[in-house]
């Protein structure tokens, strides 16, 4: 009975736009998964996955892959970006890795070392083991020919 109320409250928070923040001076070693928006001004050594928006601030660093619905990058990324909808790279963005996004906006001054694919039209499933030893399905988008 109480668990159901807690679950409903948590779902309400996700719908209301709960934002996760990794502040300046914080370093996380390991993968980060969230259903809500996340802003990273610290450093993450590992993959970041969000079903919403990922924002990397000017002081933010991600040494790993990013999989998200939308993303805005102002900091440093060393890894692949796989963005389902829109990716915005500001003038201070530094990306070393391949980019796949449906829409891509790049401000003058942004630095990219890698390949870019835009206009993603279909996905294929990849099954990978999660921390519990079970298999979880993720998606990886490919550009159409």
Describe the SSE topology.
Layout: H1 2-15, E1 19-22, E2 27-29, E3 32-34, E4 37-40, E5 43-45, E6 48-50, E7 53-56, E8 61-63, E9 66-68, E10 70-73, E11 76-78, E12 81-89, E13 94-96, E14 99-106, E15 111-113, E16 116-118, E17 120-129, E18 135-143
Parallel strand pairs: 1-4, 2-5, 3-6, 4-7, 5-8, 6-9, 7-10, 8-11, 9-12, 10-12, 11-13, 12-14, 13-15, 14-16
Antiparallel strand pairs: 17-18
In short:
The chain is mostly beta strands and 145 residues long. It has one helix at 2-15; strands at residues 19-22, 27-29, 32-34, 37-40, 43-45, 48-50, 53-56, 61-63, 66-68, 70-73, 76-78, 81-89, 94-96, 99-106, 111-113, 116-118, 120-129, 135-143.
Question: Would you mind describing this structure in some detail?
Answer:
The chain is mainly beta and 145 residues long. It has one helix spanning 2-15; strands spanning 19-22, 27-29, 32-34, 37-40, 43-45, 48-50, 53-56, 61-63, 66-68, 70-73, 76-78, 81-89, 94-96, 99-106, 111-113, 116-118, 120-129, 135-143. The protein has a domain at 18-117. Strands 1, 3, 4, 6, 7, 9, 10, 12, 14 and 16 form a ten-stranded parallel β-sheet that branches. Strands 2-5-8-11-13-15 form a six-stranded parallel β-sheet, with no helix packed on it. Strand 17 and strand 18 form a beta hairpin. The protein is globular, with a radius of gyration of 16 Å. Mean pLDDT is 81; it is low at 122-129 and 141-145.
């Amino acid at each position: 009975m109480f668990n159901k109320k807690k679950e409903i409250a948590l779902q309400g928070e996700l719908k209301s736009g709960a934002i996760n923040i990794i502040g300046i001076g914080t370093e996380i070693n390991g993968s980060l998964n969230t259903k809500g928006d996340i802003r990273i001004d610290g450093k993450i050594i590992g993959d970041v996955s969000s079903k919403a928006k990922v924002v990397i601030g000017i002081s933010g660093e991600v040494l790993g892959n990013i999989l998200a619905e939308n993303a805005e990058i102002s900091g440093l990324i060393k890894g692949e970006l796989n963005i389902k909808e829109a990716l915005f790279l500001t003038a201070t963005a530094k990306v070393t890795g391949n980019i796949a996004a449906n829409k891509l906006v790049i401000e003058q001054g942004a630095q990219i070392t890698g390949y870019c694919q835009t206009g993603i039209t279909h996905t294929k499933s990849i099954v990978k083991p999660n921390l519990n030893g079970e298999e979880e399905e993720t998606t990886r988008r490919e550009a159409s020919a």
